[in-house]
Amino acid sequence: MAQPPKVPPEPPRKNRLRPWLVQLVLPLTVGAALIAAVLLAGTLLRERLRQDGVKAIAFTDIECDPPDGLTRVEFLQQVQYLTNVPDQINLLDPDVSARIDEALSAHPLVAEVQRVEQLPAGRLRVQLVYRVAVLAVANPAGVVDRDGVLLPSSAQRKDLPVLRARVSFPMAGPGQPWGDDTVKAAAAVAGLLHPHLQTLKLQGCRIELDRGDVVLRTAGTTVIWGRPPGRERPEEPPAERKIQRLLERPELEGQEHDLRSAACVHRRMPGP
């Protein structure tokens, strides 16, 4: 009698979950290791400070680049006035970096605290990004950055475009948005033009709004920008293209330049 054919044993199934487990566990392991390394570094630094006898530094000894128009000490003194932080910073406090971050962020000229770095010998170094004044408002008087955030009265106004339109009073103090749509629209355009004001000879130009369109004027030049960035009409080119077109032919003096056409810039002599 014929023997039935032998069936080879079924190979063991591969664990299909293993790749998923690796993808899940590996990032968690790496993340945990990084956190542990940061905590260990902080612990070692605090221990080193204890051995060196350095436990505190003056708040005004924090190392940073100050904003325009202020010295480093003046800037840090203003931060102290605004936040009531103590004169001495406890370097052994495990939350010292977070406290410094919070205090500096309260200054109206600070847009971002990028990094708080503890260095040997009891030094603290901070990397900051400051707000840049791009637009002066005529009435009520004020200066704002490209996001329409009100800046302190000490902010430089020289050569800035000046918004001459009816606007509301600021809704809050320096470091907060002005809260007016006209200011926000003009600031967005002024922020894009800010690096190119000298090239385009638009320093100190007037900014107005005409039926929703932003218009810039000097004694002999008119630039019809159009709608504010991000709010263009369907046929209107984006803000980046408008800037590019102006820079392709920066000799604006004595002409009217209409940037609203998708096809090209319409240039003509201004009317009487």
Walkthrough of the structure:
There is one protein chain. The chain is an alpha/beta fold and 272 residues long. It folds into two domains: 56-130, Roll (Ubiquitin-like (UB roll)); 135-268, no CATH class. The chain is built from six helices and twelve strands. It has helices at 17-52, 72-83, 96-105, 181-193, 197-200, 239-248; strands spanning 56-58, 88-90, 110-119, 123-130, 135-137, 142-144, 162-163, 206-210, 213-217, 222-226, 256-258, 266-268. The strands form three sheets. An eight-stranded mixed sheet has the order 6-5-7-8-9-10-11-12, covered by helices on one side. The protein has a two-stranded antiparallel sheet with strand order 1-2. A hairpin with a 7-residue loop joins strand 11 (256-258) and strand 12. The longest helix has 36 residues, at 17-52. The N and C termini lie far apart (117 Å).
In summary, what is this structure?
The protein has 272 residues and is an alpha/beta fold.
The value of Rg in angstroms is 29 Å
Q: Structural class, from secondary structure content?
A: alpha/beta
Strand content: 15-25%
Output the helix-strand order: HEHEHEEEEEHHEEEHEE
Total number of strands: 12
Write down the overall mean pLDDT.
85
Count of structural domains:
2
Main sheet attributes: strand count, strand direction, barrel closure = 8 strands, mixed
